[in-house]
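Quick one, tokens below:
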């Protein structure tokens, strides 16, 4: 029962970052989110089928954000999420990318402060 609590915490954690497309997301939290999302949609389909569409629409942005962050964690651009639009092979390729282990890439560097422009006195 401990894994159920952990899965629920991961699900709620993704919902708290519902529109955060920057950063990364490790493999386990992402797949826990997918699992809980699948179970909730299935249960909702059994209890009240018309509400499944509303639930899926409500969870669309958090799902996209989680997938983009997961792609970032594998060292890929978030735009690769558009592979899902290619019939048959696109979703398969995307699942393979999402299932791969994290890449140890350095964090993106913040933009360096602009150097003093010539002709301006220092401290101006």
């Amino acid at each position: 029962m401990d894994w159920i609590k952990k899965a629920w915490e991961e699900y709620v954690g993704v919902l708290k970052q519902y529109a955060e497309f920057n950063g990364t997301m490790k493999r386990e939290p992402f797949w826990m989110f997918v699992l809980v999302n699948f179970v909730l949609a299935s249960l909702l389909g059994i209890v009240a089928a018309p509400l499944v569409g509303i639930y899926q629409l409500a969870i669309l942005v958090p799902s996209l954000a989680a997938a983009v962050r997961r792609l970032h964690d594998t060292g890929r651009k978030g735009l690769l999420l558009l592979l899902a639009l290619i019939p048959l092979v696109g979703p398969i390729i995307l699942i393979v990318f999402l299932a791969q282990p994290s890449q140890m890439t350095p964090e993106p560097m913040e933009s360096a402060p602009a150097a003093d422009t010539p002709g301006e006195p220092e401290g101006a």
